[in-house]
Write the structure tokens for this entry.
Amino acid sequence: MIQYRILETGFFLADGGAMFGAIPKRAWSRKYPSDEQNCCLLAMNCLLVWNEDRVVLLDTGVGSKDLGKLSYYQFSRLNDIADLVRSQGFEPAQVTDVVLSHLHFDHCGGCTYRDSLDRLKITFPKAMHWVGKSQWESYLSPNELEKYSFRAQDMLPVAEAGLLRLVDVDFELFEGFGLKLFDGHTQGQLVSFIETGEDKICLFPGDVIPTKAHLSGEWISAYDIAPLESLAAKTKLATFGTGKKETFVFYHDAYTSIFHSTTKKF
Ligand SMILES: [Zn+2]
């Protein structure tokens, strides 16, 4: 029996225009609030998934290290991912797998931390860290649009420790836990499909669908490197036909982190 729990690692601010791309503010402001400077509050909702054999963490938040250079994002209410895992009754060394939707700092920063002597340490030292192969290639040689979204200190120690596992085809991590590849926001994102009951499935789409408002096909963030592929990715997600009651966990939605979908039509 697979169980799951959302772990709220914190919040930050992003420009509303950037979040909703070509969608006019008079439309998106009805679905997502913003402040007087047009900033939207975004969450970083990770997911802990476990059964008798495996403890799996989906994304790790921005973490606690080197946030000075990212002060523009005004991170707030940050919670340590290791403490959040402990709060569910697991030690960080018991985490067997970390599945990273992609490697932008707000999703994988928590994979490493700095100890009191400023040495980089791996937060989940026994976990296999799963990453899309083309995402890893983008991480190693980023394009111009993404070069500030990837940080060497987040994932290189994981790779050097031999804990990185690359995914280049859709597959089942274990019975009831599927991983599928999507492009659009960035190359080689991993979306997790978790069967949580006979007729229930939980989807963790990462930045393929960052908030509930982004369920609509054309509501595409200006951060996405390939908007047409984002649209195709959402269509693919919408038409998979899992045949089950779907629950979406939105990584960035500060207001609707969990959403039970009743229709296949977004
Ligand atoms: Zn993100």
